[in-house]
Amino acid sequence: MQDLPIRHVPLNFRLGDWALWRVRLPLQVRQVRLNEATEPDAVAIPPACPPAPGSEGFVLRGHPVAAGLPVMASIAGYLRYVPLQYDHYYIDLSIPFAAYQARFSGKTRSTIHRKIRRFAEACGGDARVGEYRTPEEIRSFLDAALPIAQRSYQERLFGGGMPATPAFAAQAMSLAAKGQVRAYILFDRQVPVAYLYCPLIDAVAYYHYVGYDPDYARWSVGTVLFWQVLERMFGDGGIHFFDFTEGESEQKRQFATHQRKCANVFFVRKRLRYILLLKFHHRFEKSVTTAGNFLTSLGVKQKVRQLMRFGLRR
Length: 314
What we know:
This protein is α+β, with helices and mostly antiparallel strands. The chain has helices spanning 97-102, 106-122, 135-151, 153-158, 166-177, 221-234, 250-255, 272-298, 301-310; strands at 6-15, 18-31, 57-64, 72-75, 78-92, 127-132, 181-188, 191-201, 204-206, 209-212, 241-243, 258-269. The model has no long low-confidence stretch (mean pLDDT 88).
């Protein structure tokens, strides 16, 4: 852990999908990879080594846990903060695609295939998925996908669209040169309407950047693209798992073959400013959760989320 690079880890204050405020902490980050043989941890203790100069502690991301951890605890001179505990969903791509499809009910399969047919019909029969792997192909992918990313709700609400920066383009092409990226675009004739960008690490594809043109939301283009991407990945011998990364959603639960309980665990030096900051963040998160539960009880939470994503539609 001592030799881990120091990163400025964001601590986000969000209202649903909307980022209100972000604080960055200089911490050393360890990402636990899906294909690591890591047993669930019932305690989560800090590394034995001290933080590197300039670091205020450590973060273990995607750390497998045996049970729920307290959100805050004092341990070995650190404030241990666990802001996120979640079911980590992933897909085992080693089975045949036919066997994967058989996991779904006949109704679900019919619904997915109907969405694909409806979109194809709306495109006059000219709907297609483009796949991009080489540096030259990734350059074309970025040219087509970035305008979608700028219009996506992820970008409008919290700047979460795919970065339109030279640094990101250079990184993507560098990964492509090593065969470590898969990218896809769904087209309506010649018009790109949805994209998915997946870097590869040790034969694991990561669900990194995804977006679609909001004008095509009624055609479920995200689902249309994702299902066809999965079919290709099951036939791709260079990919063993598809990792949905942290967080939970109905889509992840629906499409995953496996899950494991994980947590993001912060070990931060016990200094007054950090104690106050982390306690405030925890209370803010609790208030947002309480408000969300209240909206759910009124039956309006989904409508509020749709309004935040798509705005008022006539």
